[in-house]
Batch of 4 targets.
Target 1
Amino acid sequence: MTAKLSGNLIKVFVYGTLKRGEPNHHWLTRPENGHSRFVCEAQTVQKFPLVIGTRYNIPFLLNKPGAGHNICGEVYEVDDTMFANLDVLEDYPNYYDREIQQVKSKDNVSIDCWLYLIKEFPEQLLLKRHLESYHNAETQPYCERSERLPDVKAKEDMAY
Ligand code: PCA
């Protein structure tokens, strides 16, 4: 017998702090946040700029397809509850936006997934180093939201 899940399963591609070994991965594995299952590693079919932004060193996938790299990340299957909780973490739609993008697994299977990205951003962010794969240990350390200053001007802060 398989466990009953509430509602539909949704595919999400994560490329930043939600990946295994990264600072927000616990959000995906906490049972009270809902259901999630690791599906595979994958890379975006489109190229995107992936940069580290703000004084809090947050990974941003910028909505400028064609610039940057095919981004490496992980595909998860999540239920509605987990998806809603991911929206809370990413502060969708105020901070991150999200859209469906095609990614490819290592054995070349195409999967349509939701991913979180920044749609409106200051141009200077494009001048930062474009990553192909995010690893907190290799960048300036990520600062959790609970440790940040009150974010009155979140968007204006982005280029910091
Ligand atoms: N969390 C989401 C978007 C950026 C971030 O840090 C992710 O890992 O895909």
Target 2
Amino acid sequence: MRLARRLAIEAASARIGRMETKQRVFSGIQPSGASHLGTYLGALKNWVALQDDYDNYFCLVDLHALTTPQDPKVLRSNIRELAAIFLGVGLDPARSVIFRQSHVSEHAELAWLLNCIAKVGELSRMTQFKDKAQKGGAEAASVGLYDYPVLQAADILLYNAHRVPVGEDQRQHLELSRVLARRFNGTYGETFVVPEPMILETGARVMSLDDPAKKMSKSSPVPSSYIALLDAPDTVRKKIRRAKTDSGSEITASPDKPAITNLLDIYAAMTGKSVEELEADYQGKGYGDFKKDLGEVVVEGLSPIREQALELLGDPKELDDLLEIGAEKARAVAGATLRDAQAKMGLG
Ligand code: ATP
Ligand code: LTN
């Protein structure tokens, strides 16, 4: 069975090699904690939908995860869990290259080259760095956290990706990748594709369940603020039942009702219905009815993913093998781009 799967992947990889006409997509997620509904609606769901139309590279960015303190044992298990989630949502190793960043050393090597053209002023303006560094005091933040966006640019540019499907919070990082690609090309000659962000209209910014002013985040210390993709159905129902709501009782989206607006957005993203349709469906009904239905919608959407991921977690060897097959394919592309960049800078 395992062997059959591997052969199928190999055959598909030969097909991937012939797909030069397709544009390339690259994106990544950190194995730094529980992947949640925001990650799913802002990124993963979109990745799955892109698979047939693009030449896809999807990466577990484990080097990025090290920019904040990680317990090695927990990190190891988070990496496998995220790999299981990648496959559980429907990423298909026969159509997409799925791999770990640390298995392809070119990521760290290109990051160094790009470090030498990135500017301190640019990195100091990154809001994610400012927010995260603020939590423990900027002086104590790691140099890795500061340099995070340069490693992200290296990820994308190594594959000459045309499109990068991410949530809204990544817009600024992507802009830096574009700036670095243009600067490198302008200084050393045409080398990198300048990537375009791909940000969905619905689901691109899922907010926290306990504070609709903050994005749903896996680094939140409050587990009830996010719905983890592996949460049991009853936990999902309970978290939604307890989610913060606004004053008043109408189910309508508006800037002065950020909590119910967020829940309506989640409902819309999970079902494909528009927020207006949902407002009409729930006219005259209360928060209780709405939350009960939303709980079922989310449970129904996430259950197949959870079941599939839990099953895959029962075979860690298979997950590791799949990631290694992906890394081999990624190295071939990344190696060629790195050598080109090195040569252009005078290292070749
Ligand atoms: P942290 O919150 O700890 O910074 P994160 O969840 O933002 O981590 P990743 O897991 O690396 O970081 O994000 C993976 C992808 O999910 C990115 O494309 C990101 O834009 C998207 N994403 C993350 N959180 C949300 C959210 N709340 N709404 C929509 N998209 C999100
Ligand atoms: N910073 C991203 C994760 C990430 C990424 C990438 C996304 C690292 N490298 C390359 C797209 C392309 C985040 O979502 N937190």
Target 3
Amino acid sequence: MKHTDIYEVLNKQDLVGSETVVCGWVRTFRDSAQVAFLELSDGTSFPRLQVVIDKNALSVDPECTKLGASVAVRGEVVKAFKGEGNELNAKEISLLGKCPPEYPIQKKRTTLEFLRTIPHLRLRTNTFAAVFRVRSVAAQAIHRFFHERRYYYMNTPLITASDCEGAGEMFRVTTQPWNAACKTEEEYYKNDFFGVKAGLSVSGQLEGEIAATAVGKIYTFGPSFRAENSNTTRHLAEFWHVEPEIAFAELPDVIEVAEELLKYLINAVLTECPDEIKFFDSFVEKGLIEKLTHVATSDFAVCEYTKAIEILEKENSRFEFPVKWGSDLQSEHEKFLTEQVFQRPVFVTNYPKEIKSFYMKQNPDGKTVAATDLLVPGIGEIIGGSEREADYEKLLSAMKERNMDLSAYKQYLDLRVFGSVPHGGFGLGFERFVMYVTGMENIRDVILLPRWTKNIM
Ligand code: ATP
Ligand code: MN
């Protein structure tokens, strides 16, 4: 259909005085004796376009004025009577699709919980339109950030046979019906599509290392799958994962890239989505703009795990799970550190090796590994990363300690045999980032169709 985007009609001064067609959905209708006003949105602009109807000159099909109806309007672009931008003086309004009164998105503000029950319609609200504009802008900025720095964009497999990291959290991939006759797991999977047990990847990191140890700097940006039973506001069964992997990098370099990326993304969203961020600041998280501006311009904190435990131990009485050296940090501890102690994003570094993965670089103290989690107020962990163990013997012994099946990791070990280099990387949960910049408190509200336990709408 030949028509002009509302964004252009609103903002382009040289369109004033010309005639054009816009298409959109009716967001409000106001009527008076002589004139009526339709507000339309077509997704290209957060502010809507006001269509002015001179009732003496034009009679309008009532169906065209119903909330949610889709219409095409031919009219003249004029400077807005009030405020900035342009509006449209209607000459002809035609109905594209009518919208009956049982339309569940009504003008009165509904709850996010209710909207979660109609995920196919919730994008027609201001809140969700804004969330997905921000999400899209942030995704573009991720690609731009890495592209400008000469990282390769790699696509790692989603189906994988390695279940080291995801043991227990891995979704299985199979074409086989249930077969009770098999005596062992191996026998069962032998007849399966791949001939071995396969699953959906929980992370592209191990494959990312293959690329980084050949072409230097890479990143992946795709879905990861985790069958975690935790019914939280921060976990999805299917989420989008940004995973840079960098050769010739040690833990401080990894931290530097993570901080730079986060600031770059925040700036991109602030500059490219001013209307949306203003909306979130007013209706979702008061003070959001100040928070983001502050974060984008100040240094993140860095704190050793051991030091973090010292701080937390003094506060043990306030926690559901008291901590001591060796404890995994729970969400309550992460939030306390970033919200109360540091009051800004903080990288916690050098965790006990027992609570982290086999591939992380072992520190000289023999007790900790060169891992880092970035914790941010309101969310807790947003990034998890590490320097990887580049020493063949040390990696092998860490795998043996964990009784891992070494034959499955021949390729991974090979990367330490042929020209091994210090390298590292991190994983940023894309939805957690979108939560952080929009102030949305539930991860289910920042992805189109969220998947979690017992929910696959
Ligand atoms: P958490 O402790 O919060 O469960 P994790 O330590 O299991 O996270 P990592 O394996 O370090 O997570 O993954 C890297 C990043 O991916 C996390 O920092 C987080 O932002 C994101 N992430 C991890 N699991 C999920 C999930 N189930 N849903 C959404 N994002 C996730
Ligand atoms: Mn983590």
Target 4
Amino acid sequence: MSELITLTVDGVEIKAAPGTSILRAALANGIYIPHLCDHPDLTSVGICRVCLVEIEGRRPTVSCMTPVEEGMVVTTASEDLDQTRKVNLELLVLNHDYNCQSCDKNSKCQLQELTRYIGLDEERIKAMRKPMLDSPIDDSNPYYIRDMDKCVLCGICVRTCDEIQGDGCIDFAYRGIKTKIAVLGDKPIIDSTCVTCGECVARCPVGALVPRNAVEPTYEVETICPFCGCGCGMVVGARGNKIVSSRAVSGSPANNGSLCVKGRFGLSFVNHPDRLTKPLIRKEGELVEASWEEAISLIADKFGQYKGDQYATIASAKCTVEDNYVMQKFTRAVMETNNIDHCARL
Ligand code: FES
């Protein structure tokens, strides 16, 4: 492992691995530098310009794009920095839809946090305000909504789609004030190659990408995704006994902060009124509810009537490895057949 680099930030000596940006080194050591377009899961691109810092002997520079150097002396707050950050922030909000009260991201929005931290002159914003893009809200996807009037062009969604999902279905389109994030041909997202993983939705710092019908949970529980056998770490949010949200566990060994469409948007089956919660037994052509004891003894009786290749097992990806091991053992050793298969996708 290469040696750590020592630098001073706001008079505090900190250490960071070579190649680490000043921004990430400072944040890891509890020193806040305002930022918007940087995300720990993605490459840095230096778009928003609010992470400016002063480095001794140099002009102010964006800390997310500047790697730490031995002996560097960094200042994160000064009158000049405040002023420049304010102008850069103004440029980000000039044509941003300011209707925070009705926005799903209200109080969880990074742009709101920045405006509180840096401060904005409302009169100046009013005077310089540009017309909004007035893009129609794209609600073509059944699980999330795109509102490009709330987009600040940080590019986090573009990099997420490219670097994490490997899909690349969105990119910057048009030029100048008309610039926006769009799919090929500026069509609704449903007409693109989007696989609805929701990774971009999870990382959007503003209200441009939000889950449809988002409900704020009253409590959260860390668990494992109940779908396929990957075992992705997730945090499920609930109100009472009803699941209302899910998000990935950052750094989880199986999924490292990502979820697929099923884990992110597919948990409504848990509370669905059509979900079977009791076994059904066919009696005189009709399926009727039965107790577990009745169902299990019926299955045991039926098992006794078949042998060898008359019998087959379909195991499930929803079961644990141990459950599936026992099923194949039972199929081979007790039922004496190799007819066992597994539904790997659910
Ligand atoms: Fe550095 Fe946006 S966070 S330029």
